[in-house]
Amino acid sequence: MVQIERTVASPQVMKNYFIGSVLSGGGSSPGVNASAQEWIKMVNQFQRDALSTRLGIPMIYGIDSVHGHSTVYNATIFPHNIGLGATRQVKRIGAATALEARATGIPYVCRDPRWGRCYESYSEDPEVVSSMTEIVTGLQGDIPSTSPKGVPYVGGKTKVAACAKHYVGDGGTVNGINENNTILSRHGLLSIHMPGYSASIIKGVSTGFVITDWEGLDRMTSPRHANYSNSILRGINAGIDMIMVPMKYKEFIDDLNQLVTNHEIPMSRIDDAVRRVLRVKFTMGLFENPLADETLVNHLGSHEHRELAREAVRKSLVLLKNTNSMLPLPKKGSKILVAGAHADNLGYQCGGWTIQWQGQSGNNATVGTTIMDAIMNTVDKQSSQVVYQENPDTKYLQSEGFSYAIVVVGELPYAETEGNNMNLTIPEPGPTMIKNVCRAVKCVVVVVSGRPVVIEPYLKWIDGLVAAWLPGTEGQGVADVLFGNYGFSGKLSRTWFRSVDQLPMNVGDEHYDPLFPFGFGLTTEPTDDSN
């Protein structure tokens, strides 16, 4: 029933406390740029420690694979879920993520983009979210026709156990504040927030037990961890089966034992929780094959998976404005300005939950292609010139004679509460750069963000506007569509507001007056390469 962070796990801890699960918290890895082999060595050692106990029950290793196996260096980082929602396709991505996770060892509805976890949701629309639970079968495998529905299923050694997270209503909190109260009717709860979970269960999502979030029991009180024993009592008796402690495991185990001894938590409740956890371990095949398969290491960051991610990026891009058919852009005979810090920053285009919990800036955290590199790879090098200026001034813009500009701006990386944002403005110098560049040169603005942001004040100067979301490591997919190798096809999975004063605003609301409505997205056709 106890899940602990890998940094406090040791052979003695695993054996003496019969630890049932170990996890990597956000950004927790066996070392900087750790290889697949290093991950395998660590996970297998924890597993051997668990198997050496009296009962020999294998442990489950948990990790957040939010958009690919994203804690691991050189893994394929797919677009975050808000971008995948624009594609309406995820099953193959789930299968690729499962393989990369095996090479080393998610359905809620976001109703308010001010929420710091909005990019982890596929859509504001429960039907879209339900359809995207196809990722469960990608991660776990297709359920055989003879298998009962609603029963956990994992289809072999190349698949993993998926987790339907976090909890019903999590994406509907007041003002989009992370871990705030969700206030709505029972009908609203069941019709808006429940369908994704129901669909996941029907597809055999393997977490057939309830697990807390990081220090979830601690956060039942204010201040945190006050009257911890009572939080354990209430939580376990309410039906929690596994507790992400994750550090103070000794205190938790001592308090839990005391509560059971005093008959405040019945042994039948403990048996019920253990039965649920064991069922998942059996379903995963951990008793038969507890150790990692080293023959899968070459799947991590494979060419096949990167091509799949590149395809996902292409399909996730949403074209919001295209004055005078500005897009697709010509590859030949042009002097092209590329501006904005997000154009040449792999960390920015991947966002949070990438190597580190909060993400990071720069191009050295993992392996991938920036949007700038992708542009350079795409244009005709003989007849076109590409100039990168992170923040060009007006004098420079007027003197260089650019054919057109690509301005790439957006949000800085964030995750969870750190991403709560009540104004949703693009950080400076983004807005000023849009005004300066787009008033001087024909321009396409590419917005790299985990949600819709304030854009209406600048729209009059923009010729082409593209929502690129958080595309991940395969920035080549952005250039593929900007320059017409493929057409735009993505559709908004979230309503794009005019002003934050309208929020929350979702499709179907009585007073629905968006800048771009749910499902909006202009299309283009591929162009000839001689363009």
UniProtKB/TrEMBL annotation:
Gene3D superfamilies: Glycoside hydrolase family 3 C-terminal domain (3.40.50.1700), Glycoside hydrolase, family 3, N-terminal domain (3.20.20.300). Keywords: Glycosidase, Hydrolase, Signal. SUPFAM superfamilies: (Trans)glycosidases, Beta-D-glucan exohydrolase, C-terminal domain. This is beta-glucosidase. PANTHER family: LYSOSOMAL BETA GLUCOSIDASE, PERIPLASMIC BETA-GLUCOSIDASE-RELATED. The keyword Membrane does not apply. Its EC number is 3.2.1.21. Signal peptide: none annotated. It catalyses: Hydrolysis of terminal, non-reducing beta-D-glucosyl residues with release of beta-D-glucose. Belongs to the glycosyl hydrolase 3 family. It comes from Linum tenue.
